[in-house]
Structures are given as C-alpha cells and as structure tokens.
Write a structure and sequence with these properties.
Layout: H1 2-10, H2 14-20, H3 26-37, H4 41-53
Helix pairs in contact: 1-4
Length: 57
C-alpha cells in the first residue's frame, strides 16, 4: 500500500498504480484499497491533494 499512498504526490492515476502493484483488476484494487483505507483510492487521493494544498500548519 506504500506505492498507493505515494501515488497522488507523484501524479499517478489509479489504474497505473493498480497494475504497477500487481493487481490484474481495477475493481479488485479499488475494493481492497477501500477496505484498508476506508474510502476508494480516488477519494483518498483527492483528500491528500487537498490537505497538501492547504497552507495551514
């Protein structure tokens, strides 16, 4: 999941990460990611991007 968690910072898309970390199915990757993180990868990565752009400490 480390690769998936650093993907937003690298500008990677969900399918790129899915296949790079060894999943053969985007649906399976999305389901498993949501089980582990509590939200689908796209939502998680948007949240990370938003937090990174917030100037508050």
């Amino acid at each position: 999941m480390l690769a998936a968690s650093t993907a937003p910072a690298l500008g990677c898309l969900v399918p790129e990460v899915c296949f790079a970390v060894g999943f053969a199915s985007l649906d399976t990757f999305t389901t498993r990611f949501a089980e582990l993180v509590g939200m689908p990868p796209g939502a998680s990565w948007r949240q990370v991007a938003q937090a990174a752009s917030d100037p508050r400490p």
